[in-house]
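Extended Data, record Putative HTH-type transcriptional regulator yybR
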Amino acid sequence: MNADSSSSHPPIEQELLECPVNYTLKLIGGRWKTIILWQLHQGPKRFGDFKRAINGISERILAKQLKELEADDLINKVLYAEVPPRSEYSLTPLGQSLEPVLKSIFQWGIRYGPYFVDKPVSSATSSGGDRPAANREVNTTKEKKRV
């Protein structure tokens, strides 16, 4: 087998073959996309509906995430020729196929969310993953040595 045989597939197809979970998370992962998809699972929404329903998302980020989901064919955007202009977002059939995944995430959150109530979630508390915990450990070790 030569070195080029592993690259016989286009990069996206190769990535999908190597790890479908990673590929799927690239499409729906991140802080906001799953929340946007969950909102659309409940029915079509306008831009303002998302702003009211999703705390902490800026208009710029919301617009960016909606464009990415639309480009990935997970959502539709319908523009109405009205004054003032109006647009509405809904799930495509491909986006609707994520319903069982979204429901599973929702159910997992209901069931196990209470476990995390008093625990910091590393990805939500810092951009450095587990670095704060590692730093605390080092500080604790140094304090023990001083005593």
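Summary. The longest helix spans residues 131-146.
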